[in-house]
Specification:
Blueprint lengths: L11 H6 L6 E4 L2 E5 L5 E5 L3 H7 L4 H27 L2 H18 L2
Antiparallel strand pairs: 1-2, 2-3
């Protein structure tokens, strides 16, 4: 199932199970996503270790790219959040997933 948001990086197999799960990968370990309550959040798992070990000669380039990504983060987050919050289907998706989770918990 493809997502209606062109920017959504969530794999189709995950969307098939959770239609409210939307992600946008900004690179360098930064992911915009949605928590279990339908709140847009950021999730950053930087891969510094990989750069130091595998690309020590590229650390300046990598650091510069991370700095640029972080400077652009507020703009990207606002766009991500506003598109989800203003989407009339998103709230229904979150409600449906909460109901599904409640049913599975009560089994």
């Amino acid at each position: 199932m493809a997502c209606r948001f062109g920017w959504c990086d969530t794999p189709a197999i995950i969307h098939a199970d959770d239609v409210s799960h939307h992600t946008r990968d900004l690179g360098h370990g930064m992911l915009l996503t949605v928590d279990t309550n339908g709140i847009p959040i950021t999730n950053w798992m930087p891969d510094w270790q990989e750069w130091w070990i595998n690309k020590p000669e590229e650390i300046d380039t990598e650091y510069g790219a991370v700095a640029t990504m972080l400077c652009d983060l507020p703009k990207h987050y606002r766009e991500f959040r506003e598109e989800l919050i203003n989407d009339p289907v998103f709230a229904d998706e979150v409600i449906a997933m909460k109901a599904k989770d409640a049913r599975e918990t009560n089994k």
